[in-house]
Amino acid sequence: MARDAARQYFKELNPTDFVSVMAIDRALRVLQPFTKDVARLSAAVSLAADGTPQQFAEVSNAVRDAIDKAQAASSAAESSVASAGPGGGPGSDTGAAFATAKLNEVIASMLRQTGVGEQTIQGRATIESLMSIIRGEQAYPGRKAVVYFAERISLPTQVVERFRDLISAANRANVSFYCVDTTGLDSTRQLEEMSQDLKSLASISQGQQRRRGGAVTTQEATLGENADNVLRKSAQNSSHYELSYIPANTVYDGSFRKVEVRVKRPGLITRSRQGYYAVRGTDATVSAFEVPMLNALELKLLPRELNYRSASLTFPTRGLRTQTVLYLEIPLSDFSFPIDDAKNEYEARVDILVFVKNPEGRTVEKFSQQFPFRGPRDKAPETQGRNLVFYRTAELAPGRYTLETVVQDGRSRKITAKRAVLVVPARPPQSLALSSIVLVRRLDASRGDSDLAESPLLYNRQMVIPNLSSAINAKEWPELAFYFVAIAQHYRSPR
Predict the structure, then answer these.
(1) For 369-409, how does the pLDDT look when each residue is reduced to its tens digit (9 = 90+)?
(2) What CATH number should be reported for the domain holding residue 490?
């Protein structure tokens, strides 16, 4: 039906219409660039309906090669016209050539962006999988080694920061990675691909220089980023050595310590980290924005520059473990909302870090997130008058834990850290188990959290919003509602 509908559409095209056929599997594939040729469009639709992802990739790559060559030829023609001066143009074919060049530019831009998108998806998936290996092995003492077989790891600029987090996590967990490229030595092909991509980017840059003004296209604005992504494609064009050292300074004050590497032999290129944050080793992985909050937990007197309320609510399950809701209610009134006069917008950011640690001080659960806020200037007071609700659920065995929570103003760097005792009660078999008793502020049906269906605070398809206020005003709350869960064998009754 889709194929027939597309062919019927082709019969009704106007003389000025151009149509392209594309398919989407793991990435965008151009099966036919813009054309008026109905026969070609019909053939492309048939391929889209009956073809395989491998065929899509082959055809799309051929389209890209043809467009790259056409753009290179167009760039050379523009150069000859520019050098010929006034009256040296090709005449009546100029309009058609210009239109074709613009359509090719559209296709080239889409293919370039989908290439980066595919690399970004692949890179993120790879990094998060490797991060899971690190998390699994971090609790095991001693040095761990991972032999990793892969064709490549895609590292476009969009995932570089997360890749640095991966390296930091591996260092902290004492995990070493040994990577084996399963493609074998194939630097010639990679160099050819890089050369072709760089030529295409060079043509865009030359066209921009010839115009000397006017509107900047998306391709021109992202030249630097695209060039950086091209240079990251090949990982087989250098030989290198890796050095490591253990700092002698064992004072973990959270400060940034610079690192400089110098070599005696001429002609060597060194690449090293600019430095590191002096943070005590932790069982959990650490992101850059968490460093000041980890530093706050190291202080003898925990800072209290922001107000927020927190609670740990326990809910029994039918198994031996207990679901524990770690709940924070953060008034935004204490946070800075600086105004960007150029954009006439406000910006703010809330950073949150939560640790659950066992009696030995080892991290059992860790949650962290950044919450950015942005909006029109006149909406800043309204947003600043609201509360941010943060909650996460952890399944914990009976026992005594330490709960550490940190909230930071991402703009002013004000910070508050709290430490509390969390007790998960034991439950004898075949006994009645009662959850925490929650004073209800309201029921919220607007939340679309993906994990809401599993939350113990879910009641009748609505989210129970706890009231964490230490004092209750009878005038404001003439009626009080409480929520709890009771489990006795096969009976569970929310109230």
Answers:
(1) 999 999 999 999 999 999 999 999 988 888 999 999 999 99
(2) 2.60.40.10
